[in-house]
Amino acid sequence: MSRSAPEGIDPTTPTSARIYDFLLGGKDNFRADREAAMQLLEIAPDTRTLAWFSRQFLTGAAELAAHAGVRQFLDIGVGIPTSPSVYDTVSAVAPDVRVASVDFDPVVHRHTDAFAASLPAVTAMLGDFRHPDDLIERLRTEAGIDFGQPIGLLLVGVLHFVMDDERPAEVIARFREVMAPGSYLVFTHACTDTREEFVDRTAYATDGTTAQCAYRSRSDVEQLVNGFEVLDPGVVPIQEWIGHNLPPTTLVMLGGVCRVSPQ
Ligand SMILES: C[S@@+](CC[C@H](N)C(=O)[O-])C[C@H]1O[C@@H](n2cnc3c(N)ncnc32)[C@H](O)[C@@H]1O
Domain range holding 57? Predict the structure, then answer.
């Protein structure tokens, strides 16, 4: 049974979107979010740096997909707007892109809706990744996504918030079934190689909230994207994917870029 999505604005319960906003230096967070983030930063001050690495991975991989001809992007678990946005990045490659910015948190939706107001190519949607059939239908009808053409499915910073009993592999497979050849999947996932103290502390700080995180091993994460062609260098810590000899971080965040090959 799925945990409920965040409802309205509850400043007393931390959310992943607002914790992440705080880590990135944003202002759209409350004391409870900052306290949860500070607990992480106490053990691992490099978590802020990792948040920026993750943004770099997201925009770099989206750019790669745009260069490969993808013109429609589904940014699921989009988070509170941060610069540069996915739209800024991919529209610099191809001005005719379309972006659907989806999140299940009404606070995030309010922000993305304001961001999208002046950008006809961007549609903000309140939607839950864990309900793929409903989401795919709404992406068609509300965001004008044509699943007959390649899409870029961006699942960055979101898969580890889907618990095992919420069946992440089945949800991803449902998307894969409707993704045309030439489509891309870009994802990150928190890994069990992370220091134990950090894992325990995050479990304590976020227990029972939607910010609760399921750490998975590299082979479990590879299983989640079964059926996709995983591009080099594979499912690796995002620093390896970005290159430039970036330092390792306490929280080990795996990332990968996959393609739907022609049948
Ligand atoms: C850590 S933030 C990542 C934001 C952005 N993708 C990035 O990488 O900068 C995670 C986001 O995923 C959203 N989220 C978590 N579970 C979700 C779900 N089942 N459906 C839609 N959004 C979800 C949260 O509300 C939050 O905004």
Answer: 16-259
